[in-house]
């Protein structure tokens, strides 16, 4: 057998016509087989994506929250908020923020005519357990979106799973810069603020209240969120002229922090910054107060404790120890805008107490995803993602908010709060010191690097 | 110097808890020859005796919270406060010390039921089987507590006058930086007293003498017509009480959750192995030694040279001691050896 000379294999008029006929026939076959949309109407992408609800009367969400572990309190409140969001989406209850959200495409009859159903999982505040639980939700339960949080380590781990599997993940409580920074993903969205924004909001208040000559000592939870927050707060305080005496990493769930607190007594520091959250923060703050830090005078100044990320649930756990301590928070139930009032009323009527910031962010995220599906007219993830990217909305408790397209981070107001010394009720544990406008906490989407990745996976 | 003394105090405090748990563990191993992996659960059950009493004392009536206007909120007012006013408040404030009395009969009963109901059936089984069954029991107890009390830690507070710190520096003329929380000092003193009481009981009572004789030579004691089994059952109950009390008193230091026993169990086994299987003195000495080492390993000066050493120091020391002294610090020949 001999090869044809190269000159014989070049394109001739006959082969060109045969090829064109083949391509046309192939495309026609593809269309007839239904593997590409024949008509550009709602659900035209139906057969192309994972967990397409198709003709099912329901669409399923997965709520993957820490039901055990150091952030279990937040997890329980997140779950309450998700259940309330589902209720409101399905047209039950008083509608909550569906009455105040602008612009709103949802009609209060489910999403795209389908009722919302859900499954829940326990992340145990562990990345591997959270991924396993999320995987089960996607593969076994067939969820079209999953959500949850309270640990940035977990959020980052499941966000990358979301990208791999092509299912949207709406982050719950996650505060690390990395979530929408270097570890950002096309399929992950964060409504919650980040550590950089905590620093930017707290800086001016710390300067006003504590001056510019301070010596700070950091105790930091040893994982991505802790490192991220320490770095952001350190940059802020050093920018004010403060000196950083030491930064000490502590294991998550350490329980007894005494061996980390006692060195603070002799360090010459006059401010202790606790980069802890949840149960860790309750324990470390309680123990710092037990060791008499708040009664100390150092360098001629009163010793101060700062908790950069605060929540009412933590304030509840720490009791009187929280009084007078400064921090920042994403949202607080005492806000008087229409969205906050509507949500607090719904939540309070349902459960008998006001929601936490974790509950708020999870509730808002669920409505935002649902609204994006309605806007896109499909559950097809790339279209839903495009609807969320660059979406400007209001009436959700944080003032006018932008879901930034470049990093999937919401840009909105941030609250600086203080443990309330004279609470007017059992829930009035945090006093809002300042509602810092979003212009003051805005930052470049390229600041922390990262690539979102493709729409199609 | 202040830092040094503070870390010693921290170490003694932590060591007190390790020593109390390890003491109970060793008592059971020394008398019954059982490797009890449910021992951490006894610590947890003790802690939850304190939680239960607090819940009983704060049983409340729901009163509408008038300060909340936009939804119906209720606050809880304990019956004791309603009925007895300030006296009721004081009784609630003393719930942790009162839990000591509350937990003794409960822990004794739990210990006796555990031994008679399950452990006695495994005396003649291998250590591996004992470990499996007791570990399974620990998980069951843990899940029961989780089902009853939830997964979140439940804070306990000591009486008001013990909530602050003692200025040890001022007493010793060493400056103001040597301060230590009152309750931790109370815990340390309590651990010391409880350990002394156990040793006094074993050394200076007839019951203790018989038990020690039984630990040395069970068959001969039985030949003398003494029912050593019954005494060993009581020892199991006492070990449960000691461990339970350690748990009760630890609640103001660390709010208990269902997992607190497991957190201490592994460390306590390391303590027992380092001290020498079956040696009561070894368990106590190793408890304090490892507690102090763990505290010193957390010092910034140490961590700057050996980052992460605070997380592994106990296991590192255990490895070294077992290499140098395979029977532990005060272990006896023939215990757990083929």
TrEMBL record, chain A:
GO terms for biological process: amino acid transport. SUPFAM superfamilies: Periplasmic binding protein-like I (SSF53822). CDD domains: PBP1_SBP-like. InterPro entries: BCAA_transport (IPR051010), Leu-bd (IPR028081), Peripla_BP_I (IPR028082), TAT_signal (IPR006311). The keyword Transport applies. Residues 58-420 form the Leucine-binding protein domain. Keywords: Amino-acid transport, Signal, Transport. It comes from the Bacteria. Coiled coil: none annotated. The keyword ATP-binding does not apply. Belongs to the leucine-binding protein family. This is Amino acid/amide ABC transporter substrate-binding protein (HAAT family). It comes from Aestuariispira insulae.
TrEMBL record, chain B:
Its main location: membrane. It is found in: Cell membrane. GO terms for molecular function: transmembrane transporter activity. InterPro entries: ABC_transp_permease, BCAA_transport_permease. The chain crosses the membrane at residues 15-35, 42-61, 98-119, 131-152, 185-211, 232-253, 265-293, 305-324. Keywords: Amino-acid transport, Cell membrane, Membrane, Transmembrane, Transmembrane helix, Transport. It is a multi-pass membrane protein. One of its GO terms (cellular component) is plasma membrane. One of its GO terms (biological process) is amino acid transport. Belongs to the binding-protein-dependent transport system permease family. LivHM subfamily. This is Amino acid/amide ABC transporter membrane protein 1 (HAAT family). It comes from Aestuariispira insulae.
């Amino acid at each position: 057998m001999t090869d044809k000379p190269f000159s014989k294999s070049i394109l001739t008029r006959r082969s060109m016509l045969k090829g064109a006929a083949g391509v046309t026939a192939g495309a026609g076959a593809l269309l007839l087989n239904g593997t590409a949309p024949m008509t550009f109407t709602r659900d035209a992408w139906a057969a192309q994506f994972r967990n397409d609800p198709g003709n099912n009367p329901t669409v399923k969400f997965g709520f993957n929250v820490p039901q055990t572990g150091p952030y279990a309190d937040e997890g329980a409140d997140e779950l309450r908020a998700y259940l309330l969001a589902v209720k409101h989406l399905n047209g039950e209850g008083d509608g909550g923020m569906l009455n105040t959200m602008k612009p709103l495409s949802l009609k209060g009859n489910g999403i795209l005519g389908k009722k919302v159903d859900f499954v829940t999982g326990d992340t145990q505040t562990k990345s591997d357990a959270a991924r396993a639980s999320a995987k089960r939700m996607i593969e076994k339960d067939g969820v079209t979106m999953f959500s949850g949080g309270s640990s940035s380590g977990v959020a980052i781990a499941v966000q990358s799973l979301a990208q791999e599997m092509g299912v949207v993940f709406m982050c719950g409580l996650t505060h690390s810069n990395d979530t929408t920074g270097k570890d950002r993903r096309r399929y992950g969205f964060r409504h919650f603020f980040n550590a950089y924004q905590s620093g930017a909001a707290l800086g001016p208040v710390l300067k006003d209240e504590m001056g510019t000559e301070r010596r700070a000592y950091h105790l930091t939870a040893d994982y991505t969120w802790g490192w991220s927050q320490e770095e952001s707060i350190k940059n802020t305080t050093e920018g004010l002229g403060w000196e950083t005496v030491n930064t000490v990493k502590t294991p998550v769930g350490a329980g007894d922090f005494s061996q980390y607190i006692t060195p603070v007594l002799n360090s010459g520091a006059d401010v202790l910054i606790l980069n802890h959250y949840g149960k860790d923060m309750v324990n470390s703050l309680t123990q710092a107060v037990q060791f008499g830090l708040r009664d100390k005078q150092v360098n001629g100044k009163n010793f101060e404790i700062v908790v950069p990320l605060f929540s009412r649930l933590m304030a509840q756990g720490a009791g009187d120890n929280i009084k007078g301590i400064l921090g920042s928070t994403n949202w607080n139930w005492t806000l008087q805008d229409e969205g906050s009032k509507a949500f607090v009323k719904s939540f309070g009527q349902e459960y008998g107490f006001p929601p936490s910031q974790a509950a708020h962010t999870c509730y808002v995220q669920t409505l935002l995803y649902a609204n994006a599906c309605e806007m896109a007219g499909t559950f097809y993830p790339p279209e839903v993602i495009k609807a969320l990217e660059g979406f400007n909305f209001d009436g959700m408790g944080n003032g006018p908010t932008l879901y930034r397209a470049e990093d999937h981070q919401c840009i909105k107001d941030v609250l600086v709060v203080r443990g309330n010394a004279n609470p007017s009720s059992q829930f009035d544990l945090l006093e809002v010191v300042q509602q810092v406008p979003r212009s003051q906490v805005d930052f470049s989407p390229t600041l922390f690097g990262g690539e979102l990745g493709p729409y199609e996976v | 110097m202040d830092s040094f003394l503070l870390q010693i105090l921290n170490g003694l405090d932590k060591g007190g808890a390790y020593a109390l748990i390890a003491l109970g563990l060793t008592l059971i191993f020394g008398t019954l020859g059982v490797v009890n992996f449910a021992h951490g659960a006894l610590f947890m059950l003790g802690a939850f005796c304190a939680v239960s009493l607090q819940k009983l004392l704060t049983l409340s009536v729901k009163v509408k919270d008038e300060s909340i206007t936009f939804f119906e909120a209720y606050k809880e007012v304990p019956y004791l406060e309603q009925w007895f006013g300030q006296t009721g408040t004081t009784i609630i404030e003393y719930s942790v010390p009162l839990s000591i009395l509350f937990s003794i009969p409960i822990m004794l009963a739990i210990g006796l039921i555990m031994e008679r109901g399950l452990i006695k059936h495994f005396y003649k089984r291998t250590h591996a089987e004992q470990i499996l069954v007791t570990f399974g029991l620990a998980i069951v107890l843990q899940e029961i507590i989780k089902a009853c009390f939830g997964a979140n830690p439940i804070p306990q507070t000591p009486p008001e006058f013990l909530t602050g710190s003692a200025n040890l520096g001022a007493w010793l003329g060493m400056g103001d930086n040597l301060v230590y929380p009152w309750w931790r000092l109370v815990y340390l003193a309590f651990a010391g007293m409880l350990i002394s009481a156990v040793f006094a009981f074993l050394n200076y009572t007839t019951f203790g003498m018989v038990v020690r004789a039984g630990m040395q030579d069970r068959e001969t004691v039985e030949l003398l017509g003494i029912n050593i089994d019954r005494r060993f059952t009581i020892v199991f109950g006492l070990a449960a009480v000691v461990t339970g009390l350690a748990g009760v008193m630890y609640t103001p230091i660390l709010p208990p959750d269902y997992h607190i026993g497991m957190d201490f169990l592994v460390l306590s086994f390391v303590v027992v192995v380092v001290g020498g299987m079956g040696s009561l003195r070894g368990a106590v000495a190793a408890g304090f030694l490892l507690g102090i080492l763990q505290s010193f390993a957390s010092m910034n000066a140490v961590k700057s040279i050996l980052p992460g050493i605070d997380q592994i120091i106990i296991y590192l020391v255990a490895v070294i001691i077992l290499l140098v002294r395979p029977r532990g610090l005060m272990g006896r020949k023939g215990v757990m050896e083929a």
